[in-house]
Amino acid sequence: MLRLHQHVARQLTVMIIVLICIFGTASFFICKQMEMDRYENLLKTTLNVIKTSIVHESNIGEYIKAVGKSSDMRVTLISDDGIVLADSMTDADMMENHNNRAEIMRSRSQEYGVAVRYSNTLNEDFLNVASKVQIGGTFYFVRVTTPLNLVMKSFYIIWTSIVVIFTFVLFISFFWINKFSKNIRNEVLKLNGAFNALADKEYKREFHFGFAKEFAELGIYLNKLAKRLEKRAKQKRKYTAKIRLLSRQKSDIISAISHEFKNPIASVIGYAQTLNEDENIDIKIRKKFLEKILKNSQKISDMIDRLSLAVKLESGDLPYQISEFDFHELVQDIVSSFCAAEPSRVIIYEGEKTVVNADAQMMEIAVSNLISNALKYSEESVHVKLKDGVFSVIDSGIGIAPDEISKITDKFYRVEGRSWDNSLGLGLTFVSYILKMHGFELVIESTPNHGSVFSFDLICKKPVEHKNG
User: Fold this and answer.
1) Which long-range contacts (CB under 8 A, 24 or more apart) does 370-376 make?
2) CA nearest 140: which of 85, 198, 181?
3) pLDDT at 196
4) From CA 286, how far away is CA 306, in angstroms rounded?
5) Is 141 helix (H, G, I), strand (E, B) or coil?
6) What pLDDT is stored for residue 459 in this prediction?
7) β-sheet with 124-135: strand ranges across
8) Cβ-contact 77, 85 below 8 angstroms
9) How many CB atoms sit inside 10 A of residue 218's CB?
10) Per residue in 233-289, pLDDT tens?
11) Pairing relationship of beta strands 390-395 and 451-457 according to DSSP bridges
């Protein structure tokens, strides 16, 4: 199968050859006829001169010979009955009667009689032109002839020139066709390169075509296509990254559940197995074991509740009720609960009345998780503040590395060697979700080995759309 540029070159070559053949054939016959007409007109002009001059000549025979010699034409004088009276090339007495010659017959009814015929006297084809002339009251015929080979010789000179021109045009055409074919081939090669680049995902390459407007438009379309493919590739990479993240999060969930549920479940099984195997166990030990079973079961139940809460928060399915309340009273109650539950820990609270519009239950979860997180990662006292509408939890714990701050609110996020989680790594995730629901923003400031500050502004809040309540 031929390539595009080869098809174009072949079609153009055939078309040019056919056109040259048509024009060559037509020009052959046209030029031949034009040359015949030219010589015929030349003979008629000569004949008119002879007709004008012969009436004044006393020796017509000598005049005929002189004219024929000077013009390189054969001149013949013929009587009205066809007898040759004088001829510039042959003895008139030896010539046949010309009354039946075509040019003589035609000149009787026309101004000029024209005929091309073979001369038996000279054994050659001649172009003959005859006309009637009156000399001294008697009608005669004057005929002027020229060899047909002389006409054809002149025609062939002209035709050869035309052939040379056609040949030159043909070579120029072949050169132009070859160049045109190469240009198309180069553009097609560029297109192949562009498609290969797109296939190899080289979307940042620029494609330029300049041979023809159609190729230039193709280049524009290919550049647009490359940009679209690059955009889709980015989207695909983001989607793939998202899928990988989800897969990793699922693995983290399984890992977190396995890790966090393993110890309490093992304790429940161990204590239950001991109680089941020893029916005579001391009543105090039995009570202690039952308390351990109850405590670990409650821990498992709490972790399940946290997982359920995380799913509902993330999907927006958790209903909430906005109401007006004093945030200061809420924090006081939470701090009091932590002090009762953790009598060995010091929690210092400084606050002032701050009225907010929020879901009290959810804000309680957020505050409780922040205080719990501070107690978990700090052995010293924890400071809780509510001043000028800004709530803060300050600890002097292990702190957070700068590159970890933006990640610790991610669900199930863990750091090698320790974890910023509150059972399953969901504590700060809950805080982040709840604050965003209310238009608040969690601000984290931390220095490794010096402590952290978790805060949010209750006054400067972003507008949010409440779907529930």
Assistant:
1) 370/431, 370/454, 371/334, 371/335, 371/338, 371/347, 372/338, 372/422, 372/427, 373/420, 373/422, 373/427, 373/428, 373/454, 374/452, 374/454, 375/338, 375/342, 375/345, 375/347, 376/422
2) 85
3) 85
4) 30
5) strand
6) 83
7) 84-87, 74-79, 138-147, 124-135, 113-119
8) yes
9) 17
10) 888 888 888 888 777 766 766 666 666 667 678 888 888 888 888 878 888 888 888
11) antiparallel
How are beta strands 347-351 and 382-387 bridged, if at all? parallel
pLDDT at res. 469: 44
Q: What is the pLDDT of residue 1?
A: 59
The pLDDT of residue 413 is 56
For residue 204 the two structure tokens come to 């940042």
Which pLDDT score, from 0 to 100, does residue 78 have?
92
Task: Classify burial at 178, counting beta carbons within 10 Å of its beta carbon; exposed 0-12, middle 13-18, buried 19 or more.
Answer: middle
Which strand (E) or helix (H) includes residue 78?
strand 74-79
Two tokens, residue 32: 């031949």
Query: Alpha carbon of 85 to those of 76, 91, 102: distances in Å?
Result: 8, 9, 18
Question: Largest Cα–Cα distance in the chain?
Answer: 179
Q: What is the pLDDT of residue 437?
A: 81
Phi first, then psi, for residue 139 (nearest 5°) are -90, 135
In angstroms, the CA 225 to CA 219 distance is: 10
Q: Exposed, middle or buried by CB within 10 Å (0-12, 13-18, 19+), for 223?
A: middle
Residue spans of the chain under pLDDT 50: 415-423, 466, 468-469
The closest alpha carbon to 428, from 454, 391, 451, belongs to 454
Residue keyed to tokens 């821990």: 299
pLDDT tens, residue by residue, 371-391: 988 888 888 889 999 999 999
Q: The dihedral of CA 348, 354, 358, 359: what is its sign?
A: positive
| Encoded tokens for 202 | 């080289």
CB atoms within 10 A of CB 86: 21
pLDDT at site 421: 42
3-state secondary structure of 38: helix
pLDDT the model gives residue 315: 58
Instruction: Kindly provide the b/e burial profile for residues 105-137, where b requires at least 16 CB atoms within 10 angstroms of the residue's own CB.
Output: bbbeeeebbbbeeebeeeeeebbbbbbbbeeee
- Distance, in Å, from the CA atom of 449 to the CA atom of 401, rounded to the nearest integer, reads 9
**3 state DSSP class of 415:** strand
Closest CA to 261 of 424, 53, 101, 20: 424
Residue-wise over 259-292: b if at least 16 C-beta within 10 A, else e?
ebbeebeebbeebeeeeeeeeeeeeeebeebeeb
Q: Can you tell me whether residue 116 is helix, strand or coil?
A: strand
Q: Is 389 left (phi over 0), alpha (psi -120 to 50) or beta?
A: left
Backbone phi, psi, residue 101, to 5°: -70, 145
CA atoms in the 13 A half-sphere facing the CB of 419: 17
- Per-residue pLDDT reduced to its tens digit, 415-440: 444 443 444 556 677 788 888 888 88
User: For residues 469 and 319, is the Cβ–Cβ distance under 8 A?
Assistant: yes
Taking the whole predicted model, whether its pTM rises above 0.90 is answered as: no
